[in-house]
Amino acid sequence: SAVISQKPSRDICQRGTSLTIQCQVDSQVTMMFWYRQQPGQSLTLIATANQGSEATYESGFVIDKFPISRPNLTFSTLTVSNMSPEDSSIYLCSVVLWAHQETQYFGPGTRLLVL
Amino acid sequence: AQSVAQPEDQVNVAEGNPLTVKCTYSVSGNPYLFWYVQYPNRGLQFLLKYITGDNLVKGSYGFEAEFNKSQTSFHLKKPSALVSDSALYFCAVRVSILTGGGNKLTFGTGTQLKVEL
After folding, report:
1. Neighbours of B115 (CB within 10 A)
2. Which residue of A has its CA nearest to B42?
3. B39-66 pLDDT, tens per residue?
4. Least crowded by CB within 10 Å, which of A112, B1, B82, B116?
5. How is B9-43 classified by DSSP, letter by letter?
């Protein structure tokens, strides 16, 4: 497997502000994804982070609210914009490694509370 | 469309007893099936997967799962539960690339496993 790190690990933010979450992997990856896990819920895919181009968003998620960057193969950011309490969730980065292309591995998550 | 059902929100087991966490799936094409575990305040950890071959797959921490194509199931099992196994377990499915699938994982709603002394 690989070491997948996310920063910050948790944050408490005010309504109307934005937070950028970073995901860094120490191995070669083919694909990177961002998921949301709302309190007591399962995981929902937000988007696929594409290197050097716009992310591919799932239904119900838009670029203005969740801008994503992936400047290189092993790093991506997710921004949660103009936050409201409904954005309080765990945000998880996941990756597909070159060496294990059937499996997605997840980062430790970023716990976000919006007041 | 692909979907996963985990019919039990919670499973309670006494330590030392066998455990089963149930999962059924629906896909168009050949499935890739996964189990992940989430400990409190942690991310998801990969436990095991079925891609092809032997229907019984073994994974981390003594867990195993059996792929049953006729019943479209992929139940997670462990012969002897430990208190430290208490966590939230997620089943996930995707369609194999060979049958036109992409990398999109669909997760079940999760099953909370509680192992008591």
Report:
1. 20
2. A108
3. 987 889 999 999 989 999 999 999 999 9
4. B1
5. SEEEEETTS-EEE--EEE-SS-EEEEEEEE-TT--
Chain B residues inside the 8 Å CB shell of A106: 36, 43-46
pLDDT tens for residues A50-105? 998 899 999 999 999 999 999 999 999 999 999 999 999 999 999 998 877 788 99
Q: Which residues of A touch B32 (CB under 8 A)?
A: 102
Of the partner residues B32, B43, B108, the one whose CB lies closest to the CB of residue A102: B32
Q: With an 8 Å Cβ cutoff, are A105 and B105 in contact? A: no
Query: Is the omega angle on the peptide bond into residue A8 within 30 degrees of 0, that is, cis?
Result: yes
